């Protein structure tokens, strides 16, 4: 977590979008949904289409606006929504489609934008796990959501941003004024919080957190969104976060080079060879690197071996959205066999700035041992 900086830099979205900063990424998505609902005010029970695999905060943001989440299954071996099913899921009540980026891989926004234009509904890019958002280069989305919380590309200890197109009508921009704006104070309390936060993010600090059962670290659960607020975010802090992001080493290049042997064992690497044409950039730092195991048994065996060796591998959300703890709300579209398969096989490897070359060597060696290479 960096310190605020006095230097000013241009923000990647300034050419096409205006930013409204928010108290969290979930609240930014809720505000995006509120604009989509207001833009389709004649719809009595609005519906919002989202992928069947993802963070449960997607559901929380939609329910906070009394809209209905509509879950769509994925294309096999990808984090992408099946566009045929997206089209079939659109009804007269649909107000928006949310294209969610995963592990630095943007959704296929060009295709989704075409569908949304045909149906006159909003396209929202959820770029919580991707920076910069794909739409900052090509403004395909009507609205873009960013998160600045723990585990995100830009880590500011919280906060988020809603980006809206500069040509958005004044009537819809005014929808945001209903949400209160909270101040952000960079004082001694913030510096103390930063110190503790950074301490807990170290390898040993996080290890201690994982051992405390009441902290429930690493477990994904649904949490209701009870308030939605804008935030008077410090731009000096945001600038520092972006500078820190671009200064990080591109450690995942070693994973791409040295894990290709896995593909002969039935694994798939979520790298630029497959996803470069969709916006996954080799020049952008990443927090985690994704691989798909041949099956859940193999994934779990390797996951256990990596963690036993001191590597913080994880399975991200572990299950498809309807099966996440606490998601007992009414959902449309819960038959998601491909999303379930993707969730059961996904393994993510750390490539943040605290990962060393020796850590990556250990990852490669563990995988070779477990795969009998």
Overall average pLDDT: 89
Widest sheet: strand ordering: 1-7-6-5-4-2-3
Helix content: 25-40%
Calculate the terminal CA-CA distance, rounded to whole Å: 39 Å
Number of helices: 13
Radius of gyration from the alpha-carbon trace, in angstroms: 20 Å
Tell me the fraction of residues in β-strands, as a range.
15-25%
- Note the overall shape: globular
Number of strands: 12
Structural class call reads alpha/beta
Order of helices and strands: EHEHEHEHEEEHEHHEHHEHEHHEH
Poorly predicted regions: none
Characterize the main sheet: 7 strands, mixed
Q: How would you portray this structure in words?
A:
- The protein has helices spanning 25-38, 57-63, 83-89, 109-119, 170-173, 188-201, 203-211, 235-246, 252-258, 272-275, 296-308, 337-345, 357-370, and strands at residues 17-22, 47-51, 68-72, 94-100, 122-126, 143-147, 160-165, 181-183, 230-232, 268-269, 288-292, 346-350.
- It is α/β, with parallel strands linked by helices and 373 residues long.
- The strands form three sheets. A seven-stranded mixed beta sheet has the order 1-7-6-5-4-2-3, sandwiched between helices. A three-stranded antiparallel beta sheet has the order 10-11-12. A two-stranded parallel ribbon has the order 8-9.
- Helix 11 crosses helix 13.
- The longest helix has 14 residues, at 25-38.
């Amino acid at each position: 977590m960096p310190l605020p900086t006095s230097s000013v830099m241009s923000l990647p979205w300034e050419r096409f979008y205006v930013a409204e900063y928010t108290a969290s990424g979930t609240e930014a998505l809720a505000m995006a949904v509120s604009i989509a609902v207001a833009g389709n005010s004649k719809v009595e029970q609005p519906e919002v289409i989202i992928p069947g695999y993802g963070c449960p905060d997607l559901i929380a943001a939609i329910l906070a606006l009394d809209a209905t989440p509509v879950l769509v299954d994925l294309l096999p071996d990808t984090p992408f929504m099946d566009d045929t099913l997206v089209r079939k899921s659109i009804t007269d009540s649909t107000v928006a489609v949310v294209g969610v980026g995963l592990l630095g891989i943007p959704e296929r926004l060009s295709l989704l934008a075409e569908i949304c234009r045909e149906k006159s509904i909003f396209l929202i890019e959820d770029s919580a796990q991707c920076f910069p958002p794909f739409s900052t280069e090509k403004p395909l989305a009507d609205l873009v959501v960013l998160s600045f919380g723990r585990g995100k590309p830009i880590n500011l200890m919280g906060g988020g941003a809603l980006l809206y197109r500069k040509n958005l009508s004044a009537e819809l921009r005014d929808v945001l004024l209903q949400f209160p704006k909270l101040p952000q104070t960079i004082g001694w309390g913030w510096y103390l919080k930063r110190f503790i936060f950074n301490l807990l993010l170290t390898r040993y600090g996080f290890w201690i957190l994982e051992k405390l059962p009441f902290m429930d670290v690493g477990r994904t659960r649904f949490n209701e969104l009870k308030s939605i607020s804008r935030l008077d975010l410090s731009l000096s802090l945001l600038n520092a976060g972006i500078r820190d992001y671009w200064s990080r080493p591109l450690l995942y290049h070693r994973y791409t080079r040295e894990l290709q042997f896995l593909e002969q064992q039935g694994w798939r690497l979520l790298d630029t060879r497959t996803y470069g044409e969709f916006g996954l950039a080799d020049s952008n730092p990443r927090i985690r690197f994704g691989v798909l195991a041949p099956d859940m048994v193999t994934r779990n065996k390797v996951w256990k071996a990596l963690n036993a060796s001191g590597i913080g591998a994880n399975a991200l959300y572990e299950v498809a959205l309807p099966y996440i703890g606490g998601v007992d709300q009414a959902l449309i579209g819960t038959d998601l066999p491909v999303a379930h398969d993707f969730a059961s096989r996904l393994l993510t490897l750390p490539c943040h700035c605290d990962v060393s070359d020796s850590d990556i060597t250990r990852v490669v060696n563990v995988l070779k041992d477990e795969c009998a290479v």
